[in-house]
Amino acid sequence: MAEPAIAAATSAEPLWGRAVEAWRWGRHNLDDPVGPLLAEHVLLSYASVLIGLALAVPLGVLCVRFRAFYAPVLGSVNALYAVPSLALFFLLLPYTAFSPWTAIIPLALYTLAILVPNVVDGLDQVPHHVRQAAVAMGFGPLRRLLRVELPVAVPVIIAGLRVASVATISMVSVASLVGLGGLGGIILTYGFARDFAAPVVVGIALSVALAFATDGLLVLAQRALTPWARDRGPARRRGRAARRRAADTTAARAGEGAAA
Amino acid sequence: MITFEGVSKQYPDGTVAVDNLDLTVPTGHTTVLVGSSGSGKTTALRMINRMVEPTAGRVAIDGSDVRGQDPPVLRRSIGYVIQQAGLFPHRTVADNIATVPQLLGWPKKRARERSRELMELVGLEPGHASRYPHQLSGGQQQRVGVARALAADPPVLLMDEPFSAVDPVVRGGLQDELLRLQAELRKTVVFVTHDIDEAVKLGDSIAVLRPGGRLAQLDSPERLLAEPVDEFVEAFVGYDRGVRRLSFFPARQLPLRSDVIVTAGETAAGARAVARRTGEPWLLVVDTGHRPMGWVSTETLAAAADDHDVAKLELVGYGHIFTVSTDSLRAALDAAVLSPAGRAVGVADDGTALGAVAQTELGSAIWAIGSDDEHSTAADGHG
């Protein structure tokens, strides 16, 4: 590597120099740790969010049908959310060893704190007259749920997914402490461990880029799934409010993720 | 025919929504359930499609108890129109209308065709088929609601305050449309409203329910207005029921004066001559197309120069007008009361002025109704 050139750049334009250095390091190591670890990051975060969603929908539906469940369910998912992720990873190690599940199980459970209230809010905001009309038209309970209530709740559920996926992408890195952190691995093993800035910058940049890309994909998914909500003021406002609420819940957790 | 036999609904907390209701809704007629809130009218309606189950008694359609059928299956055979339309926001207009045909498993193509047919029937442009409900006005949404209820051609149509969420002008239009549809389709309609005017306009018969869900009176609209059975019904139909009842008598029987009309371009001197000849204190000025422009008083005429165009004088608004061929005495009286000149302007279907009628002549016409009330069978001029 051209050490003198970098040193010169660092003293004149430190940020630019760092960026150039990181870009070179990243390109040079694309095949070995960067590419595979990025793929791992995608796998861990997407799997966690999807499993979280698969759990949150039935849980949310249950909470709407039987209101009494909502308080205890919400309490439990919030309590889970308060457990430091590192502790959960270590707790799972004896059972799942270094398989991806050690990271996926806690991360999926964390998404519930965001997704369950969003599923419930989404179903709650289905207007009463729409539900009544569905009953009166002759929808049975299951068909009504699948064909009317859940589709109408989709914008609010996707709003929650957006927050949950960004938070999860940020949190995956913590799992690098148990050897499963995707891009966190680059930061920890190649950066901090060797006191070398470039991998840290690459890890952060790719993590942020992945979060942006995922959010963009979700926005596209929402447009494709809910053409009816596109220019609809109230629904969009509701979506935004739900997202804001979810963002409040995640503030603390996101801090932890960023610290990793 | 829908029959209620000793039907009651008591909730676990002891509230009685419907109390021992006996009611027969004849096939092909519109029966309106009217009452204030808490009179159980919506509860009674919902017993027909089992959205509410009675705690006593029996509801039957054409003799067979509704409880003999699985609720979703039963509901697919009964049209239902709800307040605020209750359209599915995530489905296009065409898909909303095709809801019940889809539930019944009709082939896609047939359901689509049926949607198109119904949009035409309720007066929606075909271009609206692929729109979403929020892109429509309140009145259009309600039309979609009616089309959706009619999609599978159910013999029975339940309407729960369907027009109460739209503004009065649109409501009037939707009511007219329903009358037109019903004349064509002859469904067995049960219509719930708290608006006695709406009930009188739409109902072949009206059931007035009193708080606590008891039937107070079941009668034709004219009978209900002419002879309320007790003070409750009388108060409910309004102390102005005499005036409301005028809506059953056509305005075309009124003597219209066409000699009080002056056309734009006429001079003030000419108009003064007309006023002298007719002895009328107000003249109706019309434009050259014979449409009303406003009233001019003899005082204004007296102060004007001889060759002044009457249309350019200070005119008093003609307020609201009545259509001679289709409106009722009630509309004519209303127009006269609201007119600053104390005279109602009658127009032809094309909006051209036919003449004016003064309150005194209206008074005589109304008095005539009162005097031969005993033998009258005033059935026309509905609305």
UniProtKB/TrEMBL annotation, chain B:
Keywords, ordered alphabetically: ATP-binding, Nucleotide-binding, Transport
Source species: Streptomonospora alba
EC assignment: 7.6.2.9
SMART domains the record matches: AAA
UniProt protein name: ABC-type quaternary amine transporter
A Pfam family assignment: ABC_tran
UniProt KW Acetylation keyword: no
Gene Ontology MF term list: ABC-type quaternary ammonium compound transporting activity; ATP binding; ATP hydrolysis activity
Family: Belongs to the ABC transporter superfamily.
Root EC class: translocase
Ranges where the ABC transporter domain occurs: 2-237
